[in-house]
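Form 12-C: Joint structure prediction
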Amino acid sequence: MTELAAVKAALKTQAVETPSWAYGNSGTRFKVFAQAGVPRDPREKLDDAAKVHEFTGVAPTVALHIPWDKVDDYAALAKYAGERGVKLGAINSNTFQDDDYKLGSICHPDAAVRRKAVDHLLECVDIMDATGSADLKLWFADGTNYPGQDDVRERQDRLAEGLAEVYARLGEGQRMLLEYKFFEPAFYTTDVPDWGTAYAHCLKLGTKAQVVVDTGHHAPGTNIEFIVATLLREGKLGGFDFNSRFYADDDLMVGAADPFQLFRIMYEVVRGGGFGAESGVAFMLDQCHNIEAKIPAIIRSVMNVQEATAKALLVDRGALAAAQREGDVLGANAVLMDAYNTDVRPLLREVRGEMGLDPEPLAAYARSGWAEKIVAERVGGRQAGWGA
Amino acid sequence: MTELAAVKAALKTQAVETPSWAYGNSGTRFKVFAQAGVPRDPREKLDDAAKVHEFTGVAPTVALHIPWDKVDDYAALAKYAGERGVKLGAINSNTFQDDDYKLGSICHPDAAVRRKAVDHLLECVDIMDATGSADLKLWFADGTNYPGQDDVRERQDRLAEGLAEVYARLGEGQRMLLEYKFFEPAFYTTDVPDWGTAYAHCLKLGTKAQVVVDTGHHAPGTNIEFIVATLLREGKLGGFDFNSRFYADDDLMVGAADPFQLFRIMYEVVRGGGFGAESGVAFMLDQCHNIEAKIPAIIRSVMNVQEATAKALLVDRGALAAAQREGDVLGANAVLMDAYNTDVRPLLREVRGEMGLDPEPLAAYARSGWAEKIVAERVGGRQAGWGA
Amino acid sequence: MTELAAVKAALKTQAVETPSWAYGNSGTRFKVFAQAGVPRDPREKLDDAAKVHEFTGVAPTVALHIPWDKVDDYAALAKYAGERGVKLGAINSNTFQDDDYKLGSICHPDAAVRRKAVDHLLECVDIMDATGSADLKLWFADGTNYPGQDDVRERQDRLAEGLAEVYARLGEGQRMLLEYKFFEPAFYTTDVPDWGTAYAHCLKLGTKAQVVVDTGHHAPGTNIEFIVATLLREGKLGGFDFNSRFYADDDLMVGAADPFQLFRIMYEVVRGGGFGAESGVAFMLDQCHNIEAKIPAIIRSVMNVQEATAKALLVDRGALAAAQREGDVLGANAVLMDAYNTDVRPLLREVRGEMGLDPEPLAAYARSGWAEKIVAERVGGRQAGWGA
Amino acid sequence: MTELAAVKAALKTQAVETPSWAYGNSGTRFKVFAQAGVPRDPREKLDDAAKVHEFTGVAPTVALHIPWDKVDDYAALAKYAGERGVKLGAINSNTFQDDDYKLGSICHPDAAVRRKAVDHLLECVDIMDATGSADLKLWFADGTNYPGQDDVRERQDRLAEGLAEVYARLGEGQRMLLEYKFFEPAFYTTDVPDWGTAYAHCLKLGTKAQVVVDTGHHAPGTNIEFIVATLLREGKLGGFDFNSRFYADDDLMVGAADPFQLFRIMYEVVRGGGFGAESGVAFMLDQCHNIEAKIPAIIRSVMNVQEATAKALLVDRGALAAAQREGDVLGANAVLMDAYNTDVRPLLREVRGEMGLDPEPLAAYARSGWAEKIVAERVGGRQAGWGA
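Section 2 - Result
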């Protein structure tokens, strides 16, 4: 197989998980703008996700958020997904939208609230059993807003205790993916604020616990690809929540704010053995399409990940290693930039053609009439949203 | 008058405006936690604001947000306030919570939306006429989320045009206070992102247009007291929206995150002639008490401003100037720090005693039974909140 | 002329000024690493700069830094440059490397130091008269390290006074370009910390005073292209000091850290009429090649500016305006991204061929033997560096 | 013992290590300003450090930097220190000021350079044996400036290998303290950029390896006290390099930029059992007094640490725990703020009096004539500085 053929083969195996909640309405604390045609229930979200996969070919799974996607019969939901060509992916817990969680969930000072939070997480594992999902993705909004508000260290003890109980419940082939976040919604301390904290907890929990990197959850200036390389080296990179940001956790389309950064991240993924199903690294989107059309935005995001991946795969690693060994700063940088500066869109059009897809997913989606159909049909009922 | 007497006299004249919306519920995009006893309408907000003034003695005015505080009869509302010992303060416009404003208000690409936004601002001036408010406070959520989304420069043209129309409508003794903000809710460009932009627009509009400094609206590391000193030097400091932050626009209680910064700001205010009614600088709170009790949080915030002001007034300016002239870096810094390190709480207790107030506003409020009363009485109806 | 022909014609007129000091050694506070073959005097710097122009065709001028590039006979230096195919460009003042400037220069508390600083600036204008340079570029290291160290506002008064004296000295066709910087070497206040401060001073000085945007001189997250658009709209953009950064004022090769940002900046330049000789906007490099080979790094930087410019010129502005008008967020963004994602290197190779240049400047330089020649010949003497 | 007596007793046991290099000249990349009277060799640095201890009573040890403080006979140097009332403290390695280290030291692509770096570290352990120092403090300037320049992950492998060799050489009672830094002098990647990386390496090395927190080495907005609490909980907090910053690694006097942050850090130290000799946590200064008088600046810094510690010790932990348990956000915050707002200077004057010291260290130092003496006597020779 030629090198280009290998790149194309790799691109055809790519899998980007889309999140059910990105199909619903979202917004900022100032306003959630409603969009016509937005799904009203988990099945409609799956319908939309299936469209993304239909046109991109590389979005085969859909993440659920519990309780946003709570249904009576998860097996039926999984079957519904399957009939549309997609599978259910990671189960995302939600311990931040109940009034009880005002001062935290798993780290709350009150044991009763912690119990409730842990029970919710255990329920999520039950759901995983039903859906066949392998990953429990944990993000905690826990933290404090004011110095002194709570005991920072005791909160770590509570966190460790709660995680351990959930970890013990994980079945064969199931993982716990722990996400960290710099800040928001807590504004003084966050209980899992950085990769170091997530890593330290995962290390103690065991091999089924791994870290999730949300690309919007870092301090300004943080070198995310360094974290990716380090977690891969430690065998602790569970996956990504992709999105992009100019300022804080802006949750814009991945690749929209700093495509070069996304390329560098994907390069470290490829270089560190994190690409490909056997790596166990999950590539998920976690975005808010506050003002743009949701399905096209998700298609675009998937394409942005593809383009960054293609460029990363095109890096001439032999030439790079040679320049690095020689201490040729400009030469080594030039090898990387050559790949980045390549226009990979023609290559991806070819790949799509070979996969039996329209080479232009966005145009094909626009022609499909789906957007008009959902606007016409999804009338009445309550639109899905972050809180729905 | 001794120096200490002068400081005490100055502290007695202090006036901190509290915002009607801080008495209602607020939150993050993840969750708004409801609190018992929260006001259900503008009059109940004024009732609460009157309590803050009753116990602190330095919170005599209340800012309104339109349309959150829309009433049929503003003169009656003003009278209602007056009967409770407070006055209506700045009118805050709101051009971000209508579905039309998804892509902006006064900077929107569509002239019809711009018209609607400007009409709202003109209506706010009408309300000022009715309430006797002197200040129109303008904060625009306008901006873009994605590069290319709109023409950055044309948006400035639209902004200038809209502001000019509103400026022309201002009556005698009325001002337009233009607020800037680094980001949020827009995540790529914000149309008034920094003091320079606000300043440039105000300069062209004329003397009735001034800049408002919201202490949470800056890039990380920004030296806010420098901006304060500069705007005072330029005669363009209209006032403050006080709050504090560790990360972004956290809207925590002012002085909670960096009390030394608040002191430095107040020092530049005092040094630059910005303290005192004649200065025209308005001191307003703009905060979100997401998880803490609202009235006590506002009382605490007012006290934090008082303490920072007291310390600023206590700076030995003669000694400071002498050390500065001599290039005595450590000596000059020590003069400033001496004032900052002083515990001014005894002094403020004295000041309150001399004003006929309880020296401990929070304890007095707690004893007053108001908290229990509103929890008991404000049942049913719809709690006020950012969107209420 | 077709559109592509117009783009190519525009690219052929591009002019990027290289700084004499970038050819010498530089470093961090921790270490300046010396490189073999580095120039030992201003003429050798011009020799190197001439090579950059020889191979790129778009680096026709060289900025000087006084006193680093002090010579007895500036006319002779200009003649020397001319004989090598380049011209002398902006004169950069240096008021930060004399022991007297420990507490500032033009803002120093001591009038004698201020006098010295202003005299240096006036001398720089004398040099401009001799070299025929049109631009005086002013960057001040002035500021304070500790709160209270000096009077923030008085320093502004001193700054205004000093600038006014120098402004008055400017001749016909001469400009003063005022640069701002967020921080470093001052760590508490900087006397010209942001574009607003520079703008306010330039506005008062008059039309010959304009603002310089150094792309590394902003707070984290600052939207630089917004500033560019705003300054162009105000007629106050004098030029750029190009470099790139991941953290602070890293002074890396322009385009190396965030090529998408550079493209967005160049798009606003083009869109705002800032491209082309008649615009008066100067495009200068200001970088430190601490660890990489200096001449190739500068060639690469010039090429990075070319590539960003080419992409900016390729934006389909008609399609962009149409999508913007319609509020088509994704469509408008896609138009911009189409240009960015284009590989413009083939186009630039064509442009160079048509200019009679080797299409690959770096390879041509490598083949030229210049690097080996200077290493062999520039032995002994004192290498030029920031302090040389 | 009453509570206040216990606080006073604790304060008397405090030990802050001062760094030999802070007595010498330092600066930024733009300029090192020389000061009269600065030491010319390690003994003169010890003389100055002894003065700081003489007047503060809590600065009993002095950190050395090798090779800056290289001498022929370390036992003699230790004896010299002892005769002046101080002891030699941590040995700091320096692998950044040799030309060989341009692309790194222990992480360099070339094995020969790595060998040299590791040999230097081993030599530092030899010196520890001679001086009786317990701590080897490691800070690496290693990193890269450009994407692609070197292999991020291989550099971690090299780092791990080098550290392991040095770790194996540590004797009984000796520790390795690994420092992390966000950026500078490397501007793209830093090989130990955050506490997580340092922690992961120390964990693998063993119990003698611990993490050092330099308070200036974090991304903007980082919650340092959270890191302190976490490292204490993990048993991996080796110590502090204290200084303060407004922007990057400004190296200002500790407590000068954000005294509230220093208090919060010291509170977590006290709360987490990190205060007191038995804790093993080392409190060291690492600062640059670029423009202020060096010895008074160090005295001031020691006093700032004392004041923050006193406030931390004064926190009413019973009341705090009670409020935290009840979820009383404002009440818990108020307990912390009460301690912070206390003016502890009278208490520290008492403590000093009881220790037989002048209650005002700075005034006493000023009266001592030492400053005048060193200016008069230390003439000729070469002033010590970062590179001396």
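Section 3 - Comments
The first strand of chain D starts at residue 18 and ends at 19. The mean pLDDT of chain D is 97.
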